[in-house]
Design a protein that fits this description.
Layout: E1 2-6, H1 13-24, E2 28-30, H2 31-40, H3 44-54, H4 61-72, E3 81-84, H5 90-102, E4 109-114, H6 117-126, E5 128-130, E6 136-137, E7 155-156, H7 163-187, E8 190-194, H8 199-219
Helix pairs in contact: 1-8, 2-3, 4-5, 6-7
């Protein structure tokens, strides 16, 4: 399936996106990972993106869309993908839809994990990152001794996960990215789930909704 993850910072998009990718056997594609990879490359696209980053400027939509399009064309994404961190604006969502339709691979669903702002802020403030492997964990995922469940390394709080910074990020999200939720709702592909439930329960809700959506697609002869 071809999926997009949406929700406030701290809603659990990354966690659910990774679980979905594992369950469905498709890659979770993070725009952050893509940017880090392209900045290390010597490709034409990488050099163009790097020029903006080095000047401290936002990377234009057309380059971001080109980067996403390039990644989605790779072999591992042919059977589907879970896209996290993109689109961030309605124009980006429109551009993504256009590219996917051109390729005959329309989006199956946009999954919106809905949580109240105060819950998101509390989660961000309690979020921890492994200083060795870079894995990110919510408070309920952290081992009893405070070490990384994956590699045993020490967990730390990122500077941009402070309460003040988290509140600023939420305001940016509400202004720029939340309209994308309404865009996909109007397009008829939005799946909304309650992100306050336990991680396994949220995953179960998403999988149930996707199963129903897939049955509808197959019944209509869609792809």
């Amino acid at each position: 399936m071809r999926l997009v993850m949406l929700g406030l910072p701290g809603a659990g998009k990354g966690t659910q996106g990774e679980l979905l990718a594992q369950r469905l056997g498709i890659p979770r594609i993070s725009t952050g990972d893509m940017f880090r990879a392209v900045l290390k490359s010597d490709s034409d696209l990488g050099r163009r993106v790097k020029a903006y980053v080095e000047r401290g400027e936002l990377v234009p939509d057309h380059l971001t869309v080109a980067l996403v399009e390039q990644r989605l064309a790779q072999a591992d994404a042919r059977a589907g993908f879970v896209l996290d961190g993109f689109p961030r604006t309605v124009p980006q969502a429109q551009a993504l839809d256009e590219k996917l339709l051109e390729a005959g691979r329309p989006l199956h669903a946009a999954i919106y994990i809905n949580v109240p702002q105060e819950v998101a802020i509390r989660r961000i403030a309690s979020r921890r990152v492994c200083s060795q492997c870079g894995a990110t964990y919510s408070q309920e995922q952290v081992a009893a001794d405070g070490s990384c469940p994956a590699c045993g390394g020490p967990l730390v709080q990122r500077p941009d996960d402070s309460d003040e910074t988290a509140r600023h990020r939420l305001q940016v999200y509400l202004a720029q990215t939340h309209p994308v939720v309404e865009y996909y709702r109007q397009a008829g592909v939005l799946i909304e789930v309650d992100g306050q439930r336990a991680i396994p329960e949220v995953l179960g809700d998403i999988l149930a909704a996707l199963s129903a959506r897939q049955q509808d697609v197959e019944a209509s002869g869609g792809r």
